[in-house]
Structures are given as C-alpha cells and as structure tokens.
Amino acid sequence: MNKAEKAVALFKEGFSCSQAVFSAFSEDFGLDRNTSLKISQPFGGGMAHLGEACGAVTGAFMLIGLKYGRTKADDLAARDRTYAKMRQFTDRFKALHCSIQCRCLLGLDLGTEEGMRLAREKNLFQTICVKYVQDAATIVEEFL
Known about the structure:
By secondary structure, the protein is an all-alpha fold. The chain is built from 9 helices and no strands.
C-alpha cells in the first residue's frame, strides 16, 4: 500500500483529512500513530471546521515542515526552502482543484449546522474530500 492509499484508508476509517495525510507519513519521521493523530486532529474541516485551509493541505504542510523546516532562528535558508516547497505544493494542488480553501472546495461552510448537514447529506466527505486526501498525499510524497 502506497502513502496515498494509506491516507485514503485512514480517512475512510473515520479520521479527518489532515489526520489521514499527516499520519500516513508520520512513521517516516519517527512519530508514532497516536502522536501524529493528536497533532493533526485540529486541522480537519479547514482548521476545526472553520472552512479555511483544507485539512489535507495542512497535513501536507506539516509534513513539509518536518522535512525541511528550520530548527535554528537564524537558518533563513531552511525557512525560505520550506516556504518554497509549500508554495510548490500549493501550486500543484490548486492546478488540480483551483483552491486550497475548504469552504471553496466544498462549496459550503462546515462551520455552520446547515453546511455540515448538507455535506453529510451529499456525502461530500466520501465523494469529494477523499480525492483531496489522495491528491495531497500523492503530491506531498514527491516533496519528501
């Protein structure tokens, strides 16, 4: 099973989009499953159902940070490399889906009762979000 398939399986198991993408790669960075699930949990649904950055995207951003992020305040090269990788990821994701914003990707706001009801009624998590999880995991794997 490749990383994208693992991310999709985690998502279908009931974890959020951010948890699915981040946790599919966590062991590669020495993080156990429980720790990675806890770290990434708040980012689902566009960051706690706020409809902001897609959780699959934020899961990928955290992975890029783990791979390239700086650990010394004066390491501006690492900071700039990390930001460049994140922009490249974003460009690739947007080329497929036009946006990285959850609200735009779903066409509704998960932060409202109405939005969440419609998402569930339309089965958006299993029909649309699963594709975002798969694509985010596929793209980020190329960066790692």
